[in-house]
Write a structure and sequence with these properties.
Structural class: mainly alpha
Shape: flat
Helix content: over 70%
Number of helices: 11
Strand content: under 5%
Order of helices and strands: HHHHHHHHHHH
């Protein structure tokens, strides 16, 4: 039932977004246009490429629009396995999940995109001209937006696990160095093969990990005090 609700929510978001597909793609491509030279534009090399790219743009937009409902359905699926006092946290968690996901996507769009695109276009010369296609750009940008949106959920997930008693503040502190290695490894997998983009994902993850420790300290499960004999 919850999966069906998620599919319906994404479908409604897709239908609404498809009516604004050209405008949405123009917004998505804006960071690249700003760093391109005057007169340069995107291209499409196959006849159906532009149409299918617009479909993908509408689907991505519908997914983002429906993200609060998707997150709500996910947390409500988890809720039956929680205690009554833990279920009261569901609504704040849904709101914070949406906030962190959208915040991560906006960070990728406004901070990472300009630096990353400027780096890649810097290899152009008088004899080498960049001709990015619509399909390649969408695949690249969509992957980064979703990656940043998901990794920004880390403080919420770790704080929630601390609340359940799965992890603790000493555990998070002790494994900080392993988390750092994991962040750079994950950034290398999720981002393009350039150092700048990887660092721009790994550094925020390090900061979010420290935020997670603070959240675990404030909201984590407290150990019962030993009774005095």
């Amino acid at each position: 039932k919850r999966l069906i609700t998620c599919f319906i929510a994404v479908g409604i978001g897709f239908v609404i977004s498809f009516g604004f597909k050209e405008r949405l793609f123009k917004i998505l491509v804006q960071p690249l246009i700003k760093v391109m030279k005057e007169g340069e534009t995107l291209i499409y090399t196959g006849l159906p490429e532009a149409f299918f790219t617009y479909l993908k743009v509408a689907f991505l937009s519908g997914l983002i629009v429906a993200s609060p409902i998707l997150l709500y359905q996910f947390w409500m699926f988890v809720a039956p396995g929680l205690y009554k006092n833990e279920r009261r946290m569901m609504m704040p968690i849904v709101l914070l999940s949406s906030f962190f996901f959208i915040g991560g996507a906006l960070f990728g769009y406004f901070v990472v995109f300009p630096w990353g695109f400027k780096f890649f276009l810097g290899f152009a010369t008088d004899t080498i001209r960049p001709l990015p296609s619509m399909r390649e750009y969408f695949g690249f940008s969509a992957k980064l937006l979703l990656a940043f949106g998901l990794v920004f959920e880390m403080p919420l997930v770790l704080t929630f696990l601390a609340k359940l008693g799965v992890v603790s503040v000493p555990f998070l502190k002790k494994n900080r160095k392993y988390a750092l290695l994991l962040f750079f490894t994950g950034a290398a997998i999720l981002t393009p093969p350039d150092v700048i983009t990887q660092i721009m994902m790994a550094v925020p993850l390090m900061l979010l990990y420290e935020v997670s420790i603070i959240g675990a300290r404030l909201f984590g499960k407290k150990k019962p005090k030993e009774e005095k004999t």
